[in-house]
Specification:
Layout: H1 2-21, E1 39-41, E2 55-58, E3 61-68, H2 79-96, E4 104-111, H3 117-126, E5 135-140, E6 150-157
Parallel strand pairs: 4-5
Antiparallel strand pairs: 1-2, 2-3, 3-6, 4-6
Helix pairs in contact: 2-3
Length: about 160
């Protein structure tokens, strides 16, 4: 717990220092050989953009905000389809930030109905290579945004290239 709190405060200090120093936000890939800013933001652009950034890179770590079970046709109806939509959304956010599910080392999973936990896990496992499951925290909730039955957020390694 103490290490986790230090990590949270360390991130806050890094974000505060970046604002103080006037770090310019980045919105995508950089030119080859260009040095990364200490903090990169990967926001959603436009008038319907959410009031948060889906992913931020601090150093070599991408922090992806919770992704929920939304899909182009609306909310899927089966637990398996909801889990797939959630993980696909997470993979898309990570890709936009220049990393992938293969580099995820920590996940937080939130499920509204713990009776569906095994069904969620069957799909979740398919997104990771054998023997490479990230560490994970998980808990139940009474609800998520848009009445999504589940959500996943993560941290992923993203070394400078």
């Amino acid at each position: 717990m103490q290490n986790r709190l230090l990590g949270i405060f360390g991130l806050g200090a890094a974000l505060g220092a970046a604002v103080t120093l006037g770090v310019v936000a980045s919105h995508g890939a950089q030119a080859e050989g260009a040095k990364r800013p200490p903090i990169e933001y990967f926001p959603v652009e436009g008038t319907n953009a959410p009031p948060y950034t889906p992913a931020i890179r601090v150093g070599d770590v991408v922090y992806a905000t919770i992704q929920i079970a939304t899909a182009p046709g609306g909310m899927p109806t089966t637990t398996e389809a909801q889990a797939k939509a959630t993980m696909d959304n997470l993979a898309a956010v990570l890709k936009r930030a220049g990393t992938s599910i293969d580099n995820v080392f920590k996940c937080t999973v939130i499920v509204a109905d713990l009776a569906k936990w095994d069904d969620f896990n069957k799909v979740y496992r398919t997104y990771f290579k054998p023997g490479k499951l990230p560490v994970r925290s998980a808990f139940g909730t009474t609800g998520l945004h848009l009445n999504s039955p589940m959500g996943v957020e993560c941290e992923a390694y993203s070394p400078a290239t």
